[in-house]
Design a protein that fits this description.
- The protein contains 5 helices and 9 strands; from the N terminus they run ββαβαβαβββββαα.
- The chain is of the alpha+beta class and 161 residues long.
- It has one domain.
- A hairpin with a 5-residue loop joins strand 8 and strand 9.
- It is elongated.
- It starts with a strand and ends with a helix.
- The mean pLDDT is 78.
């Protein structure tokens, strides 16, 4: 898990040296904070604890975002229940030290989308497709986030749009 703080002057995100030191910097600078997790399903207790510490340090939940490559309603709902309003998905091919290419996770995401561990890392998988991986941001955007109620498995099998 990593914590990023947005520089007020440049607007750029910078990684912090650790979670607690990052929360301290954010509280001192009243900065926007982004917590990034590669495996939010596994790190959920730690994520909720960070949210709690952030609020305890007088941070506004509106200034805290969560970012992951593995969106799933199971953990997203719990994080939102803890007070985080903005959750973002980061494409699997994006640079890990950057916060570029983020896609906001809507409140209504496919309930079949879930996280599965494979070879020591977490992946988003589609329950409608026998737990096949979902890696591309455009698949999240076009199927899992906005059109999941009309998701056509046949389109996926043939490559689809």
């Amino acid at each position: 898990m990593e914590l990023f703080v947005r520089d007020r002057n440049s607007g750029k995100w910078r990684p912090t040296t650790g979670l607690l030191s990052g929360l301290k910097v954010a509280a001192q600078e009243s900065s926007e904070v982004a917590l990034r997790s590669d495996d939010p399903a596994d790190e959920l207790d730690e994520i909720i604890a960070c949210i709690w510490f952030f609020k305890l340090a007088s941070g506004s939940a509106g200034e805290l975002s969560l970012i992951s490559r593995c969106p799933s309603s199971s953990w997203v709902d719990m994080v939102r229940g803890a007070g985080v309003e903005r959750v973002f998905a980061q494409g699997h091919r994006a640079e890990t030290r950057s916060l570029d290419g983020l896609l906001e996770v809507p409140r209504d995401i496919c309930p079949e989308l879930h996280v599965r561990g494979a070879r020591g890392s977490a992946l988003s998988v589609c329950g409608k497709r026998s737990d096949r991986m979902v890696l591309a941001a455009h698949h999240f955007a076009s199927r899992c986030f906005s059109q999941w109620k009309s998701c056509d498995i046949a389109n996926w099998e043939g490559g689809g749009p």
